């Protein structure tokens, strides 16, 4: 065996080193870390508090305590300044090593500490127990507003008498503060004013939104706007009454608007009357057919927003050419009246043929050329004009009047003559009730000018017979000395038509002019502005259309509609708006007004609900009778949420589920695979009471298997079936929720 010198050297060197190492004695000292009281750094640094989930956790903090010996009570403190914990705010206490707060609790604490809403803000936390204080951790927090706006001006002593003289002038300015917001807020807050009759608790508030700058903290309302609000909520024209006003603050959030309402302010308002009388009466020497008396005032009838009629005016050199307008002939001189300043003060453009008479009463004075004119007063455009006399559209007269016992609505008198109007091309037509009482007295005749009464030109049976007219067989010559018409048919309602061009007089029994009328518009939510489901009221005979209709008043936002005669034509169908019926002389239920929306649709201003709507074309009335919805706590339920795509998470088009009686709500609903819930009062929007899945589950309902708990923080309903349209029924008596 060969061992090299090099190997031996290595061995000896290693042995020596080992010997030396063993000779050196070292001591190894093991130490423990110092005990600490430490708040752990949180895993999140930004907390955005969501008002839609107030019960969800906002944060959880955890700490280590190796100093107090256990069993301690800990105080959680917060400050807006990491160096200024001299007077910290206490969030809460804990007997364990952790602490949590919900979104709502933390938000309330922050607002209480004057942290501005919707504005990222740094807050600092620490833990204390006895004399021990932890380290400080920080969060960037964005809270949400809780405090409502506060009205600062005016106060409850404010009074105003409204006037239509200058309707656009300012009547009321409301100013307010919104204390939860700072200068760096990340959301836009928009404001509007709500009005309600004092004591009604804003049951059906009237909303006025600013025309510009909706984020301003003041708003001015004109005489016209405030008058509309006052009348809409039930105040009486020309009477001072208390009106409540409050500020509505809205913030657009993903799940819908967050709305805060200020405390109400009560002011005193005297509204003016906007009701247009159906006729203006002209009385005065300048209107020669009237004179200064009430035997034969000249009538200007209302059509839409225009009064018009032919009038003989005289200018006899200024000796007596004056007149004025009156609104109620039955009151004669006690009637409200309108002189020249009445119109000039309201900025009417007045025809140059008229001047202020300056006669002590400031009547109108006619300064033109004596003659027959057509006088028109346009209330909407504020004009008074004179033009050539009109004889109707291609007729010799505007209308013919029927007087006689054979027309029982008229009789042999001039209080209520029955009128058939010229409809063009020489044709007069209208609905007339005729009677045949066995020949005792079933006769009548036609007159051309009811203002002249018995002095009017008139037409009897021979007048038409000798002119070659073909006369309906239900009429004969009465041979009563005046050769009047005699009606020998069956008593009832008829459509009478005189065609001067074709020389015919015809009668048609009246059921109705149309089989049905269709209602379309947002004020009829079962229809809306579409043709999928127009609401129909059928003809029941005798010119009467009637049916139950669900009408809504959503605070004026969009409560209008109109009538259509042929739904198969959809938008091409003939239709009838508010001025149409006014012009036809209808008495219209006070729950309807002219929407003044460009199309002059009907606007429903009553209380949302189901009504029996009747249009009587013979009596010329439109009436509403509220229908009691049987055995339900509510008129309807409202579905809102992404699971109901026609509604979504908003309040523009919530889906209604109406009460159908006996505690049952039922209707067609289109569902998608997402969440939704039920609400009771759409006017309150997100402030409405609502029902989620656990509510019905807790009440013992058997719920259709296509619905589950969304488990989304609000425990909404979740539709997990096949998307589509279903008949949804909630039976509160048998406690079932079913889909078909």
UniProtKB/TrEMBL annotation:
Xref: Pfam families: SusE
Domain of life according to the entry: Bacteria
InterPro entries in alphabetical order: SusE
Domain SusE outer membrane protein span(s) in chain numbering: 25-127, 145-248
Name recorded for this polypeptide: SusE outer membrane protein domain-containing protein
Species: Seonamhaeicola maritimus
